[in-house]
Design goal:
two-stranded antiparallel ribbon, alpha+beta, single chain
């Protein structure tokens, strides 16, 4: 599912990052860029605006596309920080008027579990600080 519209100026920067990520199979097969690869599920942003998630916890599953805005946004927000690419945040949607504040992260988009751990992107809102109504969560 296509979640984001990526402008041409961002595509050129993503292609630069993509060259650095060429050894990852999903980068090649999905025309993607690594947004996160480390402790947790690897996240990829495709040049056509999809988000691919490799679930690695407990059992190996085939890669899948993000099913909710929170999952898709998390990849972009984490990638902006890890890849030192704050401009990519411009592809995130504006907050709709009918969105609810995320109480889990107190509207910040981040969780701070302690001095040693974190911060972590809020899994409830994907780092947006707001959530769509239940029936609007997935497109």
């Amino acid at each position: 599912m296509k979640w984001f519209v990526i402008s041409e100026n961002l595509i050129s920067r993503l292609k630069e990052l993509q060259q650095k990520d060429a050894n990852y199979p999903i980068v090649k097969s999905e025309n993607a860029v690594v947004m996160f690869y480390g402790m947790g599920d690897p996240l990829y942003l495709t040049l056509d605006g999809r988000v691919i998630i490799e679930e690695c916890f407990m059992e190996v599953k085939p890669p899948r596309e993000a099913e909710t805005l929170a999952e898709a946004a998390m990849a972009v927000i984490v990638g902006a920080k890890i890849r030192n690419f704050p401009e990519i945040l411009s592809i995130l949607p504006d907050r709709p008027q009918n969105a609810d504040d995320c109480e889990n992260c107190e509207k910040s988009g981040w969780l701070y579990p302690g001095e040693v751990l974190g911060p972590f992107v809020c899994s409830e809102c994907g780092g947006l600080g707001w959530k769509l109504k239940e029936k609007e969560q997935s497109k």
